[in-house]
Amino acid sequence: MQKSSVDIRSLQIGFGGLKVLENLDLHVGESEFLVLLGPSGCGKSTLLNAIAGLIDVKGGEIHIGGRDVTWAEPKDRGIAMVFQSYALYPRMSVRRNMSFGLKVAGTPQSEIERRVGEAAQMLRLTSLLERRPSELSGGQRQRVAIGRALVRHAGVYLFDEPLSNLDAQLRAELRVEIKRLHARLGATMIYVTHDQIEALTLADRIAVMQGGVIQQLDTPKKIYREPVNRFVASFVGSPAMNFIPGRLARGGEMVFVAGVNRLGLNGYVFRSQPTDAPVVLGIRPEHIEMTGADDQSSVPARVEMVEPMGADTLIWCRLADGTAFSFRRDADAQVRAGDALAVRFPADALSLFDEASGQRL
């Protein structure tokens, strides 16, 4: 199996007067699984199509395996691509769908049979090789599409939202398949999705994109625990991160002030010198703790709604000043609407953002 790095240098892409990507830089290492994550229209699929050679660039360079392929044809880039739609030939069997590209390329028949057999075994398609796409489930069709890419023995595999047309159970099953496939092959993979669960479970690193710009490029854990700005914090995580507006004040220690509530920040690591400008505190629901009313670090809250979610429970509350937030407890939590609670916001689990810029403090 080939393994190639991908280097994007000062990439510029636009359509008419619309700039989609401008001076974008990105390095994907050999054998890395990189996920491009972001909302619709953020430029992630445009970037993937540029790597594949499906759209022209206005400036910059694309290197695959150390070779400048900026203006190379897709077939000459050493890549294989899996699309959102299966794009299978309806009158061809699974075997012929998987082997068609190799036959066109003039690959010897014995080599075609070997590659198709290997891919079919990896993807549990061996018993389906003589069926047509109409005789397969959606998950099976997508596995055929992945198998068709695998037989190419490419240096880089590109996935453009391959699971978005499947139901939740099939998506979960195929996520595991793709994760196992990457572990077995050690191939370089670039995967586009707007689904944060896919990104967090599959990626070695995630590039979170908005407006054609990579907002943060890091490991899933780092992006989840230390988002660099409010956009990343709000986009990654389900249930969503809580945001509470307020300001910073100095007493014996730095504290966050929101209405009548004061939260100690001893243990929070600031990235920049704190100022008197308005800030927004962020904390994920699973990091909020229930405590006793005698805990000096707690704040009072009242329960508005309890939302059972199977394995756990999401509890929606309001602080004394009316600020809403949610936190998670286990499924057996004995909490009801109207209950008065005391909750704690651990400083080491907080994120603080400048209100004006949205950047992490």
TrEMBL record:
Pfam families: ABC_tran, TOBE_2. GO terms for biological process: carbohydrate transport. GO terms for molecular function: ABC-type transporter activity; ATP binding; ATP hydrolysis activity. GO terms for cellular component: ATP-binding cassette (ABC) transporter complex, substrate-binding subunit-containing. It comes from Bradyrhizobium rifense. It comes from the Bacteria. Its main location: membrane. It is a peripheral membrane protein. PANTHER family: ABC TRANSPORTER ATP-BINDING PROTEIN (PTHR43875:SF14), MALTODEXTRIN IMPORT ATP-BINDING PROTEIN MSMX (PTHR43875). It is found in: Cell inner membrane. Belongs to the ABC transporter superfamily. Residues 6-236 form the ABC transporter domain. This is sn-glycerol-3-phosphate ABC transporter ATP-binding protein UgpC. Keywords: ATP-binding, Nucleotide-binding, Transport. NCBIfam families: PRK11650.1. Involved in beta-(1-->2)glucan export. Transmembrane domains (TMD) form a pore in the inner membrane and the ATP-binding domain (NBD) is responsible for energy generation.
